[in-house]
User: Fold these one by one.
Assistant:
Number 1:
Amino acid sequence: MAAPEALCWEHWDEESVLFDRRSSQTHLLTAMAAECLLLLQKEDMNLEQLAEKMGERFHSTPQQATQKQIGQLLLTLNELGLVITVSG
Amino acid sequence: MKLNSLPCSKLAALLAAGEFVLRMGPFFVQLKADIDDLAELIQRLYGDCQLETPTGISDFHLRLSKPRSLRRFYRPQARFLVDGHSPFAAFPLDHAFPLFEWGLNWCVASYSHQFLMLHSAVVEKNGKAVLLPAWPGSGKSTLCAALVYRGWRLLSDEFGLIRPGSDAMIPFPRCIPLKNESIAILSDFAPEAVSGPIFPRTRKGDVAHFKPPTESMQRSTEPATPRFVIFPRYTPGQRATLRPLAGARAFMKLAGNAFNYELLGESGFRTVAALIHACDTCLFHYDDLDQAVQTLDSLVE
């Protein structure tokens, strides 16, 4: 996970904008992507743990936080250099 | 001293001697030129602009010159130079004024990184500035011209200037260049509008420059507080309609069409964020200029 001090956040309703100081890139994040990053900032988790937390957060919304969705989201965040996936 | 307080022959002499310095919003622009009729057109369109005493310290040292090639005998040209360098190809000599305008835009966009430069018109009424960011072809300049000829203050047709960390838009009022069909549309909409000649077949089509209103020039050092960011889009057949745009989406659109957002890094991010938080953000589709002006008037009343 990118160190918290590397990221600047701005939030509007359900969406957020994130500036990554390391790459100087700006990212538009859905509520789900933002929550995912914020949870991982607090503690490292595996996919199952993350999906469970996200399920609690988004259970009653149209965004069904399934494990498959979370997995895809993590892949995207990994490509952007915002999270690091560690195997094992 | 205002440009229109001097005889044209005096302006031509100052231009030829390189002692012609204009205060244009936050910039001092020094120009040297020995091109016939240029002084007259500059005076017509920038008559309300402040002429400064040359001190040698200007933001931009510009020159319009006639290249001394054989071509000058059968197809004379004008070349734009900044600090002695020519950043782009020469124009036909009778297009010297649009060359000056585009060249100055190029200088501001290339060098003025003390500002976050948004590609946006900025107008103000009742103390509320409205940003109209848009890509070419969206009708931004036509809408901007319509607003300023109906009582809005022109801050800029092209550059939304804001100092990083500040919450005020800096005026940079200039002529509004309109293209092709927009020239006749605006002339019909505001017959009192003063404009220069139509320059045919420029790289952007036919272009005419409309003079900024006197009041906008008189208030060209007075910043304005942004209250709305409105993304205009000329849409034939569409009634003037404002639709709210979510803040994060507006952020990305505004940052995406800035001249130097990426170059400014975090300070650009913070400045755009503060601007979006301070403003209502909307998409605006319109067809009829009267309706469009009425709709935006109602926002700031």
Number 2:
Amino acid sequence: MPARALEQMLRESKEDDILLRVEGLKTYFFQRSAVLKAVDGVSFSVAQGEAVGLVGESGSGKTMTCLSLMRLVPQPGARIVEGEIWFKGDNLLEMTEQEMRAYRGHRMAIVMQDPQTSLNPVYTVGEQVAEPVRLHLKERGQQAMARVLDSLRAVRIPRPELRLGQYPHQFSGGMRQRVVAAMGLTTQPELLIADEPTTSLDVTIQAQFLRLIRELQQDSGTSVIWVTHDLGIVAQMCDRVNVMYAGRIVESGRVRQIYKEPQHPYTRALLDSVPLMGTRREKLYQIEGQPPDLRSIPEGCPFWPRCPEAMDKCKEQYPPRTSLGGEDFVHCWLTEEGR
Amino acid sequence: MANRLLEVEGLAKHFRGGGNWLSSGGDSIRAVDGVSFSVEEGETFALVGESGCGKTTVAKMILLLERPTRGAISFQGKDVSSFRGGSLREYKRLVQAVFQDPYSSLNPRMQVLDIIGEPLRVHQGMRGRDLRMRVGELLENVGLNPVTASFFPHQFSGGQRQRIAIARALALRPRLIVLDEPVSGLDVSIRAQILNLLVDLQRELGLSYLLISHDLAIVEHMSHRVGVMYVGKMVELATRDEFYGNTLHPYSNALLASVPQPDPDVPMGTTIGGEVASPINPPSGCRFHTRCPIYLETNMCREVEPEWREILSEHLTACHKVEPAVV
């Protein structure tokens, strides 16, 4: 077989593995006096069974990217202005609202940061976990309850038969987060978006939850997008990571690669600024300044005012995508010029 | 050894509550139940634990925001509860605090000049030009432009607000600052700025810190000695190197193993199941026995409260399974 044909075949088989592909996504907030470019041309993909991290600080656009994937951007105010979101063979942005409902909570689910507000206080936990089952799987009664029990068991909630009839306030924070995860997982979605699901949890409870998601992922082959600012969670949970800054992905790569040899000065700075157990540093690396105001993102590379290696070029033009082999890439003039 | 600045001896705080609508339940919420430690001059002592362990209640008692049920706090060798009038004012001057949330700890209607200047006016009667000069100086100390003295809190980012809170805490030249989760509300890149600032200020001014945190990586970076609390009790206390190098108590081990390390080659350790026990009618015997991975099958752990004892020099713990190395 000629090499080119083989290559073509390999590429296609790889294409088949891709569950989600986002191309040039732009989500803007339209305000009376300004346009906030919350997501400004984001492209990434998630393979079947893969865990992908979206890392960034507040205002970097990671949460807005996820809400865009679900087509749940705040209305009115925000709008997806450009881009494509391919879920297997379908572009989610071309679907009707009716068609989209078949995806949300069924083929893709989201687990939010705050279990307090994701649960309705006046419905029992059983009723809430059963909702996606009734809506999407059209199951009722005994059959639905059996499935709810299964998911509560899957997230290791002790005595699920009893817990099912209780209300959210009777659950602890960690248990509530499990209920929210159970809600997301009952329909066995192909993609789970975890938006900082552990920030309100205690350390030991967080560790339990992380382990649980990893086991569920291994058992079911679900793909997961981890949205977080915690570099520890990314290192432990993800295969790939996308680093976001001011609405764009500035670096993307395999977790090991990025943690060992970060290319973008922002990625490097982030990794150096967190205290690491076992390695004592006299001083933490300090990124000066603060993330930019989305109303007035600097010209050129938005990181230049904080970048220790900024050159004149950085202030003028946004750096192009420089491939680092495979699907890995970085947007930085240093790497681009260096090659 | 350095001079002892603050000493806490058998401190306890029990709250009313925990009953149902028919009975108050009495003083049954044992938020803090017999905690002892000290803070030396110029050191950072860290109190670590999960929510509900009582670490914030300990801080509140030190700041005189709660009255202890039992136990004593002494400052520079004197019993704090005996302070009245001038000595009380002096204590309040010397002990300051920086809280977690810089959004709610600064009055949105006050200018920075008044926020930082208030303690100076109240304690030292400073006014006018002197006050403005001193506030400008403090702003510079924490890395802010003195021009910002006329700004209001909403004009600052979270990290800058935390700097303002630090400047206010520094205004009266305190000896001890209670830092209650000082960076947990901040972005990663801003955390390093604040932690570095705190370390620099400590060196320059010889300050002591009581750091309250749940983040064990930050604690390792910042502290000289560490105390771990679990449901109102101290379970382990040691110097930083001892604590991170030779952890004794199973709960401390579980905490350390639970931290997801920002290194893909360091996998997470085995954590523990269950949840933090409630301080309302806490478990009998050792309070950790309900989650303990090395729980003794004899009824010892369930029935007998483990003694708080020194296992190695300056390394104390309360666990039946840990035997003293030095007799």
Number 3:
Amino acid sequence: MITLNHYLFVSGLLFALGLSGVILRRSLIVIFMSLEMMLSAANLSLVAFSRFHLVDGLPNYNGQALVFFIITVAAAEVAVGLAIIVALFRARQTTSVDDITSMKY
Amino acid sequence: MELLFYLFSAVMILFGLGVVVSRNPVTSALCLVMSFVGLACLFIQLDAFFIGIIQILVYAGAVMVLFLFIIMLLDLKAEEGRQINYLALAGGLILCLVFVVQLGSVLTSFEAGDVGKTPQQPEMTTDKNPEGLSELAMERMAEKKLPDVHLVGWTLFTKYNFPLQVVAVLLLVSTIGVVLLSKRKLT
């Protein structure tokens, strides 16, 4: 039987993958994708909690409302972050974090 | 059902691994799309139909297209000839390994998480009429079907009406911010 723990473990694995991507990869774009993966892992655990914690026989929709807000904020964050990466690329012609070590140029 | 859970989890985790290990950013982005599709399937298995569809529409549709667009705009090539920083590699792997081990040890002792999916979806219904829920949704519940979108919408527009409007302002602000950042020079 699939229990809540199964879902939490899978979500934790996805989070660990995203964390390793942020630490290991040197390309800003891939780091950004890994951040999205970590946010989605949090979403999975929220939806799992909402499904397994029933209120009056229905899933707890507070959790799903929170997931909705997280997805909205993540979409806004991606737009702003990618615009910053494009601006950075215009100034420095690179997206590797090894080449961007100073705050000001 | 159990087989499907393992299948979709494997799809999600393996393609997530592909995002981290592949050297070509386009491959990473396409792997992330597949990973999100697996995640959306898990959402739908958890009876969160609306969130599952939104996950595909927003992430796999809009966000990943934006990523691919930027990758092609900047003409990013696969990282080649770059020296691997072995210290960072070891540090990252150890950190993640410690995280997974800790997760496993916490979850094995987490007894509240040892619950199955009861009741199953067709029996999921309530006699209590949440105030303001539409008649269509109540009919659906009488037919033993879960009116997921109705209930999410009802929660968002009653309990979370103010945060919903604040999020709208946030989207507007981010749109203006992106336009300002992308402009070459302010006139």
Number 4:
Amino acid sequence: MHEFTLIRAETDEAAVSALTAHPDARLIAGGTNLVDLMKEGVETPTHLIDINGLGDLDRIEARADGSIMIGALSSNSSVAWNADIQSRFPMISDAILAGATTQLRNMATMGGNLLQKNRCFYYPDHNARCNKREPGSGCDAMDGVNRMCAVLGTSDQCIAAHPSDVCVALRALDAIVHVKGVEGHRAIEFADFHKLPGGTPHVEFDLAHNELITGIEVPGLPFAANSTYLKLRDRTSYAFALVSIAAALKLDGDTVDDVRLAVGSVGTVPWRSAGAEDAMRGAPATAATFSKAAEIFFEGAKPRAGNGFKIELAKRAIVRVMETLKEQAA
Amino acid sequence: MNVNSTVIGKPISRVDGRLKTTGAARYAADHRPVEGRPLHAVLVKSSIASGRITGFDLSALQSMSGFVRFVSHLDGALIRTIKNPVDGAFAAGEEYTPFENDRVHFVGQHIGLVVAQTLEVAEAAAKAVVVDYETSAARIEFADPTAEVRQPDLYNTGEELQVSRGHVEAGLVEAVEIVKATYTTPIEHHNPIEPSATLAVWDGDHLTIYDATQGSVNDKNYVAFGMSVDPKNVRVLNPFIGGGFGCKGFTWPHTLIAAAAARAVEQPVLLVLSRKDMYTSCGHRPYTEQEVTLAADADGVLTATRHRTQSYRSLVGDHVEPCGMTTAMLYQCDNLEVTHSVRVLNRPSGTPLRSPGEAPGTFALESAMDELAEKLGMDPVDLRRRNHTDIDQRNGRKWSSKHLLECYDRGAEKIGWGRRKAPGQWRDGNDLVGLGMATACYPGYRMPTQTRLTLDRDGTLHVGVAVQDIGTGLYTVLAQMVAERFGTSPENVRVLIGDSDLPPGPLAGGSMTTASVAAAVDDGCRALSEKLRARLVDMGHTPGNEPLVIDGGALRSGPLSVPAAEVIPTDVHEIVAEGGSDDTYGFTGGVETDKSFYSFGAIFAEVRIDRDFGIIRVPKMTGVFDVGRVINAKTARSQMLGGMTFGIGMALMEETFIDDKTGRFVNPSLGEYYVPVNADVNEFDVEMLDIPDYDFNPFGARGLGEISNVGASAAIANAVYNATGIRVRHLPIRLDDLLEDLPR
């Protein structure tokens, strides 16, 4: 029987030093993903470090400069229903409420959501080959059931799609991940936080084993008040996205003044395209512009046998979302 | 029958509702032996699809604190070999005895069992068993050209699977329009919320089993045979079952394995299947490929029908998905050919899943009818009316009671069929809107059933029968039937079911329990009534011809009223009578009759489909059903709501994926196997015609449940076509099936 030791950390420093002392330890907050994977035997930590007692990490601080600092232990629900989040960054609220269930959102934390594992069918199955679970074993998804897998950022080692909803919004908003380690504080650009699989698909984050996520900073972006999140999936609730869109739009008359666009469940990480956004900035806010940006977004996409539909679906979703935001802005 | 009954047909809340909603109802895994604690068991399952077990390395287990025992085929004859799956006394899911030998036939086969002091240790020990295999070539792909193909003659009901009448080729020549298309349905799993579970407790040679089974008597006989004990010494208890949908119908190996392990370790053993276990341990609906040919003359009258079903079976399970049986019966057609073949594959065994055959079969047939209507330029409801028949096409008999035309009329009116437009022409904002319909039908089955009726000195009636309530409302229905016969209220009736020691009844399958118990209860109540009248006469009373009423603690007949406490001698406490019926209907070899028994209905669906994304929503479904007399309007409606929800799942979501290289199911969890959530279920409009069928049983009920997801997937698929002009001939229908061709 796989046994583990539960350690209750009282301070950030204690959590970090417990991680440092135990190379096979895991932090646990909501546990909504970790506990499932422990039951499957995919995660086999020797120590669980319970960080739910850490002081101020569940605070949500709306600052005068328009930014919001979200404590890593804030529950998904508390963020989704936070009035400042809803007014400044509605796409964050929309994204969270499109995910999981009320019960899960009440338990799941924001820090944990950043570390959410992929949902490739082959990942938890010990009888299947999976380079994320067992480096070098191979990838059964490549020529298997890959309808849910990624078309962007894939490698010959891994095509698992990043499953998070809120990370798509955070990517669009250029959030900053704040972490604490033995050498103190570090800030990580959201774009750098999730790593492409490349030849090392098991290395998923720019995060050392003994670093603790303390907060997620969403920089002020006034026009993000006109933002939204659209999630397309196989059933109305409690399903991972086939495609999701997080976008914000600012118009100057009939012209796109500024825009943010990230697409979820199409990439191995939450996906942005500078080219697509550049193509919209300064261009007329028309379906043709949005459509062109969508084409650029998916340049270089590599579908497998089962997931090619995601590309066309996402392109249409981009246009729909931009049209909606345009109407809202007007 | 009192048509103005205050009991029959009323929307009475479940008599077991409080127990269920407060958690007081105990399911198989909730039970504990009277003495001591049970040991916990976890299955060890094969990871290869074909081969032999050459050894088990148990070295990691021996040091585990709390590990008790590992059992496998190496233990010798723990279980008596069962050669024939159906010897008359029982039906098993597989024609294979667990731990019979070293052979592996599919991934997930039970090859060992770990018994330990706790569930956690048992799980860890099961994972630590290292199995050595000698693998052999496996046939997994459906189209594997080396797979053996069989054409079985009969379904498990005794009905013919290969049917031919008239001359199909000649009928094709007569036709002005012909539809010939292939439809497929995926592998589907039952996924009841309660997993299968068995607690086996031995007391000497006597075995008590708390089992999540849809058939306690069947279970008892199977386990008694496998354990080489007299069936009298086996008692199966299943007072509550958390859904079954067929996967707890026939008895599966795990029940026998738990019983064998409990005997081997001389302690009670509790085996609860994990959700993953459920995918390979107790059946599934196999993938089907159905080629349907429908030919019609200019009036829409069918001149030829052909329905060829290809499916598969495992090496050890003989289930055939009987998709064409409905086709052989439903519409007037003199030239017909229905065939079924199965390919023998190294996949887990199939088994009936809610409306086996009917549900996938009507997807194909009723989609093809829709295609034919389109080709003929005819309204789909009208086409069905033109091919309506009052004669069972299989045997020339009249239907006992058939009011299908009324179902079409009511359904069309309720859904607003007149709003329907040509394909792809109905738009509302970003939505494409469509309407579709299909015929629903399900056989009327009835099995021999015995009951025990008891009156105690309080004037309370008791009815006992070894049937089970799998969530359908049977407790309540039985109370209502007895109450009706004695002019009392259901609160005065105690219902005892879920115990194989009670007078025998059928397993809960084929939507037959209500019809089966109806005849038995009627006879049991007659027997009790006669005994009580005789007793009243013995006491010097002269009961009249009026029905005997038992209410308020007294027996009444006309002006006569005698307290139950006086009628029942103090030394006996109760008066007991037994009654029942040995009749079988609907199965081959049943009662000789000039009638055929079937339930019918019509299902209508409205869909709204996003014109860009192809996301399909079902804002409204209407079902109108002709199922005989409804005993309880509330539980009957709940059955239909459940079945129509099932239909949405089958149409739009449910699919188990198999890895063709390894033979593994790759999404064995409720997280990845999608069924509808509340937000997918919108307005359901259910109507029962409520016309009694007294030819079928004295209460006039034909039984219901499964009929409500028959036709549902076709109605939705036809609505999708109507909304978009896109014909999808496979299930489930997902947005990626529509994306390219949507009329944007």
